[in-house]
Structure formats: C-alpha cells, structure tokens
Amino acid sequence: xxxxxxxxxxxxxxxxxxxxxxxxxxxxxxxxxxxxxxxxxxxxxxxxxxxxxxxxxxxxxxxxxxxxxxxxxxxxxxxxxxxxxxxxxxxxxxxxxxxxxxxxxxxxxxxxxxxxxxxxxxxxxxxxxxxxxxxxxxxxxxxxxxxxxxxxxxxxxxxxxxxxxxxxxxxxxxxxxxxxxxxxxxxxxxxxxxxxxxxxxxxxxxxxxxxxxxxxxxxxxxxxxxxxxxxxxx
Length: 234
Known about the structure:
Strand 9 (166-170) and strand 10 form a beta hairpin. The protein has helices at residues 18-22, 94-99, 154-162, and strands at residues 2-17, 30-31, 37-52, 61-76, 79-91, 109-117, 121-128, 133-141, 166-170, 177-184, 195-208, 211-216, 221-225, 230-233. The chain is mainly beta. The chain has one domain.
C-alpha cells in the first residue's frame, strides 16, 4: 500500500458520445453514462508525502501528476460499481515513472509541469516528453455553478466523482487490467470537498490512431479540491 496527501486536485471534464467511448474500453468495463453522456476528462493532482504505508511522512516525495480518464462501471464482488478507467498517466517524478506498473499499479510517462497558482486563480501547462498528452488551462475559483446537460447541480457533480474510488488501467505488458483503490484515512482533515471553477481557456493535445490533434474545447465541468486529506492507495 502507498500512502500520501492530496494537496491539490483539478478535474477537467467533458461530455462525449457514450457509444464511441464504449468502443475504446476493454472488457468488462462499461461507460457510466450521465444523462446519456460519457464523462471523460483529465485529473491533475499534486501528491505530497508519498511513501509506502507505515513510513514517516517526511521521508515521502512530492509529485505533480496527470491522468486522462473516463467514468466507468465494473463488476465487483458486491455487484456493479462505479469507477474510472485511465488511458494514460503523466508525472514529473522519474522515480514514479520507473516504479509505476512495477511496484504499484499504473504505468506513468514523464512530463514537465508548469504551475502558477494563488488563492483565487490557477493555471497549468503540462508538456509530455513524447508530445502525446499535453494539457494547458487557466481557471479561477467561483461560487457560481451553471447547470449542464450532464449535471443539474454541483452536489450532483461532487457525488458522481466521490463514489468512483477505484481506477483501472492497462498493465505494463498491456495484457491485463490493474486496479488502484483510493481510501481516505480517518481524521479531521479527511473530507471530500469540491469547489467549482470557471475556465478561461483549455487546450488538449493528444495522439490518436488517425494522428495528433490539438483541441480548444468548452469545458462542461471544472472542479477542484485544495483541502489536503490523507489517502491510502491499495
């Protein structure tokens, strides 16, 4: 088990055609549709004090990380459960890149993260070494939330992402799925709280079988969490 603190988490989410996304998922995963849409997105997360469970926090490392993912449903011991499938992960730590998919689930690629943030604004520019998964965005914190075709309220948004605590991705060999579950440890800081953000601009560059594409998109949901609970990853 790996333990760490989520210091910052940004979710950039978009609606997509559920049938198209389903064709990209490995069996037995199914798209978790929200009002008829697939919810795909990018999770940008800063982890601190990341270390094996039981090792003192000061000995852990900090890292900026990014995951391209989609909300899914998967069969578990208690029936069908919500989760996420991660197509690709990036990190700024060479050690995480080396150990990902070996010591713990999740193959990682290296990228450079440029972050500028204050109390009310945040901008990030992520450049992958391979040039296949670049993301740039700028956003500000807002108290307002506008209804979207996928979500009627921000509480609905928060619950949708809170319940998906297990992420799947392809193994290093690419022939099987690996799972990583997020468990929040007990304590006064261990709270799930998202806040809405207004995005000024978002650019995503990705590689596809048809070639590389650069998109400037209108975001359906931007959410962030800056309260830092402690989590355990199993």
